[in-house]
Amino acid sequence: AKSEGKGMFHFFSQEMNERNMRRAALENGMRQGLGRGEFYLHFQPQWDLKSFRLTGAEALLRWQSPEFGLVGPDEFIPIAETSGLIFELGELVLHEACLHAARWCRICPQMKIAVNISGRQFRQPDFLQTVERHIEATGVPPNSLELELTESVIMERAERNIDTLRALKKMGVRLSIDDFGTGYSSLSYLKHFPIDAIKIDRSFIAELTSDSDDAAIAVAIISMARSLKLKVVAEGVETSDQLHFLAGRKCDEAQGFYFATPMPAEEFENYIREFCGR
Ligand code: C2E
Ligand code: CA
Ligand code: CA
Ligand code: CA
Fold it and tell me: How far is 112 from 102, CA to CA, in rounded Å?
């Protein structure tokens, strides 16, 4: 048993080593890739469920690396956070998103582009100025820009965050809480934060029509959002059954593979031309 334990330990440490090595290699690759234009955005449409109108899109970061292939944000965002590369990457995302939003809201006035903001990025002392700078540089109408923050990022240092959120609201940008339902369970804080929308995490949507607990949670989130006068968006909608369930419960908007997978900017522009104003 003793030697078996040692073998296990050896196995784990080897696996950990491999993970650390991939991490270090990815970090290096990202650093180079930033200068080589290997990062770009995809856009996933969001639809209003009452009027069946296209309302906007979420910007999702992609990395096409010559060495690692297409790497997903779930893998490289955490590395960007610990290495500090998130600041440069976050600015790239903000800039690209604002540029596209400025252009697209001329084709489709109700168009808004949602951007994911990581915790470290949000906590940066000059975050407000950064957002302001990109709004000014691109001329985007501030209410065409939406910032998505997770529950846990907002709840961490809640008092200080309220000031930042208020300042962002003053600028005119929209704010939403991402992955709602997965973080802190205290709902009472919601009324203190100047937010516009909450996004029901896709883990509750996946089994919506087969798991009565998930259905109950989704319904509770929708009704709570309505009474707090917040817009509610369901993410990860994949089937027409899920869509009908949500529309029947008066969920405001939805996003997911049912409508479209995230797509390159040129493709989304065609999508806008096809669907906006219909
Ligand atoms: P998220 O903000 O929850 O984004 C939604 C994720 O769900 C996206 O994964 C999207 O492609 C995926 N998705 C959309 N519809 C469906 C569906 O119907 N079914 C399923 N199974 N999945 C769906 P993606 O693009 O891989 O992004 C993963 C996460 O990486 C995002 O989760 C977000 O937390 C983070 N991320 C992406 N882009 C950025 C960024 O620019 N900055 C930061 N800080 N984080 C980002
Ligand atoms: Ca998001
Ligand atoms: Ca989400
Ligand atoms: Ca999620």
Answer: 9
**Whole-model pTM?**
0.94
**93 C-beta closer than 6 A to ligand 1:** yes
For the CA of 72, the closest atom of ligand 1 is: 26
Indicate if ligand 1 lies below 6 Å from the C-beta of 29.
Answer: no
Q: What angle do CA 38, 41, 46 make, to 5 degrees?
A: 165
pLDDT in tens, 52-84: 999 999 999 999 999 999 999 999 999 999 999
Q: How far is the CA of 125 from the centre of ligand 2 (A)?
A: 22
Q: Rounded distance, CA 123 to CA 222, Å?
A: 29
Among protein residues, the one with the nearest Cα to ligand 1's atom 13 is 236
Distance, CA 136 to ligand 3 centroid (Å)? 27
Segment 190-219, tens digit of pLDDT: 888 999 999 999 999 999 999 999 999 999
Alpha helices in the chain (DSSP H): 2-35, 73-83, 86-107, 119-123, 127-138, 151-155, 158-171, 202-206, 212-227, 240-248, 265-275
Q: Shortest CA distance to 172 belongs to which of 190, 205, 196?
A: 196
